[in-house]
């Protein structure tokens, strides 16, 4: 089984990325042939500052390794080290119906949140299809917001197979963990950089404290029962606390007598404890500045061997070169 997924280096990773995608991806690296990459071609749509993009790429690599990505098990690379993705994207774009891309929610959503509507942003799902298809991927672990893009990938693969020969591409499947498919942000909406409601994976403690203690709550008095529905404190606590601690917090909501300040403190503590081992590992990775470069260079080499083979097969089928 070939597993593949990517993350955009458009800022620091947040816990929506972790629970929506990385946690599953880390488990899957022990179950198959995993390819994970940093989607820097994609991020050019929103990060148009060379130095900043490089910093984001480096931080993302460090953070993913700190969370447990094992370069001996997974091929970990930077997308732009593989221009083969961009070439395949062009080939796929020639069979991609406009209507397929016009239906994509993510494009409309991003434009509605102030990202400028460029051709790159519109054509983004085609590049994502190339990322997936060039490795003959079977399974793509993602959060719910990427599901439609994997479906578009399947539609493009079907179109290519109909046009240039059955069997040219495998049809990949999204793998979504329903429990964590949409991790809420501090304000209860989906956690997302564009909504400015994120908790970063490696948030410094004072900033983390400020964010958690600042979660907006209703004015139910301390002694009264509190609503469980739609509480972002509870939803976030569920991700980082043990089942027993989570059940206690639910019971305390139902009973009344505990204030929101107390719930927030419990959330802060559980969040800090949950990610503590990752922080330690992160410090070790940073202490060896060459390590990340080495991992990405080796990853690119392994990825290239597969990507070149697929691209040669596709060029041959469509009549290029
Ligand atoms: P990106 O960088 O926006 O997000 C990376 C992963 O995190 C998931 N995610 C979430 N999951 C649950 N709740 C949330 N609040 C949340 N926020 C983000 C995303 O669903 C994603 O799985 N287009 C992709 C990157 C990409 C890619 C690919 C992914 C490029 N090529 C090929 C898979 C296969 C993106 O922008 O993800």
Automatic annotation (TrEMBL):
MF (Gene Ontology): ATP binding; tryptophan-tRNA ligase activity
Record localization: Cytoplasm
Keywords: Aminoacyl-tRNA synthetase, ATP-binding, Cytoplasm, Ligase, Nucleotide-binding, Protein biosynthesis
Chief location of this protein within or outside the cell: cytoplasm
UniProt GO cellular component terms: cytosol
Enzyme Commission number: 6.1.1.2
Family from the record: Belongs to the class-I aminoacyl-tRNA synthetase family.
Subunit annotation: Homodimer.
UniProt keyword Ligase present: yes
Phylogenetic classification of the source organism: Bacteria, Pseudomonadati, Verrucomicrobiota, Verrucomicrobiia, Verrucomicrobiales
Family annotation (InterPro entries): aa-tRNA-synth_I_CS (IPR001412), aa-tRNA-synth_Ic (IPR002305), Rossmann-like_a/b/a_fold (IPR014729), Trp-tRNA-ligase (IPR002306), Trp-tRNA-ligase_bac-type (IPR024109), Trp-tRNA_synthetase (IPR050203)
Gene Ontology terms describing biological process: tryptophanyl-tRNA aminoacylation
Residues noted as binding ATP in the record, renumbered to the chain: 8-10, 16-17, 143-145, 183, 190-194
One Pfam family from the record: tRNA-synt_1b
PROSITE patterns registered for this protein in UniProt: AA_TRNA_LIGASE_I
Protein's recorded name: Tryptophan--tRNA ligase
Summary of the function given for this chain in its UniProt record: Catalyzes the attachment of tryptophan to tRNA(Trp).
HAMAP family from the UniProt entry: Trp_tRNA_synth_B
Ligand binding (L-tryptophan): 131
């Amino acid at each position: 089984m070939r597993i593949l997924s990517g993350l955009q280096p458009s800022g620091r990773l947040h816990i929506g990325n972790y629970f929506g995608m990385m946690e599953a991806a880390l488990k899957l690296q022990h179950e198959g042939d995993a390819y994970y990459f940093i989607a820097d071609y994609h991020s050019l749509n929103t990060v148009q500052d060379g130095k900043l993009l490089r910093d984001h790429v480096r931080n993302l690599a460090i953070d993913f390794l700190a969370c447990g990505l094992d370069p001996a098990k997974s091929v970990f690379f930077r997308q732009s080290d593989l221009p083969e993705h961009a070439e395949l994207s062009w080939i796929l774009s020639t069979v991609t119906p406009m209507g397929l891309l016009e239906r994509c929610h993510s494009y409309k959503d991003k434009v509605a949140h102030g990202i400028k509507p460029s051709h790159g942003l519109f054509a983004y799902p085609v590049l994502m299809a190339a990322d997936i298809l060039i490795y003959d991927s079977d399974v793509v672990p993602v959060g719910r917001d990427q599901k439609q893009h994997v479906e578009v990938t399947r539609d493009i693969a079907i179109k290519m197979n109909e046009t240039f020969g059955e069997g040219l591409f495998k049809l990949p499947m999204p793998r979504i963990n329903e429990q964590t498919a949409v991790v809420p942000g501090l304000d209860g909406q989906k956690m997302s950089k564009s909504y400015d409601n994120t908790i970063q994976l490696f948030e410094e403690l004072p900033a983390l404290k400020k964010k958690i203690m600042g979660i907006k709550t209703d004015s139910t008095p301390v002694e009264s029962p509190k609503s469980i529905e739609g509480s972002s404190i509870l939803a976030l606590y569920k991700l980082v606390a043990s089942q027993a601690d989570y059940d206690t917090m639910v019971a305390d909501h139902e009973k009344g007598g505990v204030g929101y300040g107390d719930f927030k403190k419990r959330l802060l503590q559980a969040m800090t404890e949950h990610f503590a081992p990752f922080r330690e590992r992160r410090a070790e990775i940073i202490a060896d500045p060459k390590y990340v470069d080495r991992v990405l260079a080796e990853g690119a080499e392994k990825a290239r061997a597969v990507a070149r083979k697929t691209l040669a097969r596709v060029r041959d089928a469509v009549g290029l070169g």
